[in-house]
From TrEMBL:
This is Epoxide hydrolase N-terminal domain-containing protein. The active site is at D216, Y346, H405. Gene3D superfamilies: alpha/beta hydrolase. One of its GO terms (biological process) is epoxide metabolic process.
Length: 435
């Protein structure tokens, strides 16, 4: 085991040590946490929103193209800015978060990786009253946060009856999101996040074995955790099981030998890469270039995020789900810590080969049982099962007719049912080890 001197760590890290915009203390032990953003920062944010400078001449897309062709229109920015400056009540949001979610902080280490800095973490932890509950690690992606777990957590910890499994749910904030401070040194990527969360589960919470669920970058993180800690991660459920086409797939398409399912997914991915992946390309190449502007403009950051949010849910649900309050609250999870670390996670992902300028590339093969759920307003919808099995031991799959990229928020009952169904099948998922 590595000695304590291996790590550059004081016994306690506070908000003053880390120059945070919220009150927090992180130690090697697990400590209760309540969200409490500093009042000066809340007031400064409201002022910045009120001083937003808007685009005064906006080119309108042709009538046959959607309103968001060039990005969020100015009227959307004005709506968010006005609501933020005049209506939005952060303290009420804080109270809701603290009432709904039981939160903690700690410091973890990853001695088996090249990253040697202490890693302060914030996480939600709800234990089920069921004695047979299964420990479940729930990991978010970008531009989400730990708040994605809010609508689904009680469905998982308190299922309707004993015929379906219950879960002890742990939902950490990826470092640089929400209330997990940004990494203090380069070299922290998806793999390091997986290692940090494994340390949290095993050594801080005592869950020697657990299952995991993730979407977006959360999927990448749990894949690395499964590969690096096969004795700990029993099985995975993903709602973002990304598998790019191979050269042979593209050759088949060119020759007219692809199935209709293969044609559809290749076209979908091509459209995403050429029209919607610009944010990822910038994140993985010049994250600091973007972060300078976004760190100083809350409404600018909100529009950067909002452009992704509105494209990833059912069209008829956009106004219902992405209210001004929710858009601002989700933006706050990046505005509070500053967006640079979350942007630069893409760059570290590119260095690992997980993502590229065209999208997702080489993620490791997962030997443990895997389940995937697919939703129509997501990128990887109707991925052929043959493709899915190239990247993992896929045992179970569900293709839904409703929902999008954030199913824990948009369709929590559907996602909870899928999670229960897979992990409730001990033979398929391997969860018999918890009995």
């Amino acid at each position: 085991m590595a000695s304590q001197d291996t790590f550059r760590q004081p016994p306690t890290l506070t908000d003053e040590d880390l120059n945070l915009t919220f009150h927090a203390t992180y130690t090697d032990t697990v400590n209760p946490f309540k969200v409490s953003v500093k009042q000066t920062f809340v007031e400064q944010t409201r002022l910045k929103a009120s001083l937003t400078r808007f685009i005064d001449t906006e080119f309108q897309p042709p009538n046959d193209q959607p309103e968001y062709t060039d990005g969020p229109p100015t009227h959307a920015a004005k709506t968010i800015a006005s609501h933020w400056a005049n209506v939005y009540d952060w303290r009420a949001v804080e109270d809701d978060i603290n009432t709904q979610l039981t939160q903690f902080t700690t410091i973890v280490h990853t001695p088996h990786t090249a990253y040697k800095e202490p890693i302060p973490l914030h996480f939600v932890h709800h234990r089920s009253p069921r004695p047979d509950a299964i420990p479940l690690l729930f990991v978010h992606g970008w531009p989400g946060s730990f708040l994605e777990v809010a609508e689904i957590i009680n469905l998982l910890t308190h299922p309707p009856d004993d015929s379906v499994p219950a879960f002890h749910v742990v939902a950490p904030s990826v470092p640089g999101y929400g209330f997990s401070p940004s990494p203090r040194a380069p070299g922290f990527g998806y793999r390091q996040a997986g290692a940090a969360f494994n340390t949290l589960m095993q050594h801080h919470l005592g869950y020697k074995r657990y299952v995991a669920q993730g979407g977006d970058a959360g999927d990448f993180i749990i894949r690395y955790a499964a590969v690096d800690f096969p004795d700990a991660v029993v099985s995975l459920h993903s709602n973002f099981w990304v598998v790019p086409p191979t050269d042979e797939d593209l050759k088949k398409l060119k020759e007219g030998n692809s199935t209709s399912e293969e044609v559809d997914i290749i076209r979908r991915l091509g459209g995403f890469s050429s029209k919607r992946w610009a944010y990822g390309q910038l994140h993985q190449t010049r994250p600091l270039r973007l972060a300078h502007a976004m760190t100083d403009s809350p409404v600018g950051l909100a529009m950067w995020i909002y452009d992704v949010l509105v494209s990833c849910v059912e069209e008829e649900n956009v106004a219902k789900i992405w209210t001004p309050d929710r858009v601002i609250t989700w933006t706050m999870m990046h505005w509070i810590p500053g967006p640079y670390a979350a942007f630069s996670l893409y760059k570290h992902g590119a260095a690992d080969g997980a993502i590229s300028m065209s999208g997702v590339e080489n993620l490791p093969y997962v030997k443990q049982p895997v389940a995937i759920s697919q939703f129509p307003h997501d990128i990887w919808y109707r991925t052929p099962l043959e493709w899915a099995r190239r990247n993992g031991n896929v045992k179970w799959s569900a293709v839904h007719e409703k929902g999008g990229h954030f199913p824990a928020l948009e369709t929590p009952e559907v996602l909870a049912k899928d999670v229960r169904q897979f992990f409730g099948n001990a033979e398929e998922s391997g969860t018999g080890v918890f009995r």
